[in-house]
């Protein structure tokens, strides 16, 4: 089994040291798509790759933490890799360019939910109306 928390911390720490322009708002889906689809021959490809994977991993961890805080389990299968999360997110962003104006975290969430939807809770049977005894 991989030490995922250590891997996430290393990737996030690497990405945190990269220069990112300050924005007065959320990191956009457009910005995430740009770093995740960087030219493999570009001199900054590895830095952008780390930024991409670090952001997606952090967003997914935040979503899972929120679910746990609400006593819900993660909907993402345990054997899903970081690369699969990246590919799923990039594919989603590529197919939904109009949505890239929104926050990157909302787009990661949408991509992940589409790929691995949470099983809907089985509806509880409706209670039968009880007749009042007179």
UniProtKB/TrEMBL annotation:
The keyword Cytoplasm does not apply. Coiled coil: none annotated. The keyword Zinc does not apply. It comes from the Bacteria. InterPro entries: Rap1a. Gene3D superfamilies: 1.10.890.40. Residues 1-24 form the signal peptide. Keywords: Signal. Residues 28-118 form the Rap1a immunity protein domain. This is Rap1a immunity protein domain-containing protein. It comes from Sphingobium psychrophilum.
